[in-house]
Specification:
The protein contains 3 helices and 14 strands. It has about 260 residues and is mainly beta. About 45% of the residues are buried. This is Peptidase S1 domain-containing protein.
């Protein structure tokens, strides 16, 4: 099964982001809605399974009211996208150790679509990582509809940004409750505001994407955005923080059927 192929070469450049073009550049990104309200972002990992944060999954308990929307870069647009497709779900699964007492740990969950996605260049899963990596001093891509600042308005178009990633020790200094199952990254204060590149309110669940070393036109999902209310968004010494995906791949595969593509 094909996976992770960007429909245009990933930009080397949410807060500090640019519009995603073309609209199907990241064909695995989904907007998640509950009772018609935008909840955050999910990522297609095979033809039936979408990954997101535990925070989002735990807040959607009525399956019939969940919608998973692909090809919707402008969710508030009145013009119907020719590539937009809406899926319902048959079930969700939250990691059993997820707890609101520490949102940095086990913050992961999944949705199973009611019908499979037909895999094309327009709708394609992202690749899963095949090896553990700290990603310290590397760069990764983030895309979402989050706000430009805390309590700010969300972007009307899907945004993308390239962010630097930091070591576990640096992440632990910012978030003492973080573990080696987290990744931290971004540009934030005390850097000047115009240099900020990070996640913010509304980016919950967005995938952190890492280019294949031998072919950057393919991307691997390495993390899932954890957006703690009132935290981050460029605030001083508050990097974006993510659930590192690799340690949870066995759990994900046990919860869902189907083939997965690894890089």
């Amino acid at each position: 099964m094909a996976c992770g192929l960007v429909q245009q070469t990933a930009s080397a450049r949410i807060v500090g982001g640019t519009d995603v073009t073309p609209s199907n550049k990241f064909p695995w990104i989904a907007l998640l809605q509950y009772y018609g309200q935008n909840m955050g972002t999910g990522t297609l990992i095979n033809d039936r399974v979408v990954l997101s944060s535990g925070t989002i999954i735990s807040s959607m308990i009525v399956f019939s009211q969940i919608r998973v929307i692909f090809g919707s870069n402008e969710p508030n647009s009145t013009t119907e996208s020719t590539v937009r497709k809406v899926f319902t779900v048959t079930r969700t699964k939250l990691h059993p150790q997820y707890s609101t007492s520490n949102l940095l740990n086990y913050n992961i969950g999944l949705l199973q679509l009611a019908v499979p996605v037909t895999i094309t260049d327009t709708f394609m899963p992202i690749c899963l990582p095949s090896r553990i990596d700290t990603f310290s001093n590397e760069e990764a891509l983030l895309a979402g509809w989050g706000a430009r600042q805390i309590a700010g308005e969300p972007w009307t178009k899907l945004q993308e940004v390239t962010i630097p990633l930091y070591s576990f020790d640096e992440c632990r200094l910012a978030y003492p409750n973080s573990t080696e199952n987290n990744i931290c990254g971004g540009v934030f204060g005390p850097a000047p505001n115009e240099q900020h590149k990070t996640s913010c309110d509304g980016d919950e669940g967005a995938g952190l994407m890492y280019p294949w070393p031998n072919d950057p036109s393919y991307l691997t999902l390495i993390g899932i955005t954890i957006q703690i209310p009132g935290v981050g968004c460029g605030k001083t010494n508050e990097p974006a923080v993510f659930t590192k995906l690799y340690p949870f791949i066995p759990w994900v595969q046990r919860q869902s059927s189907g083939c997965y593509c690894k890089a």
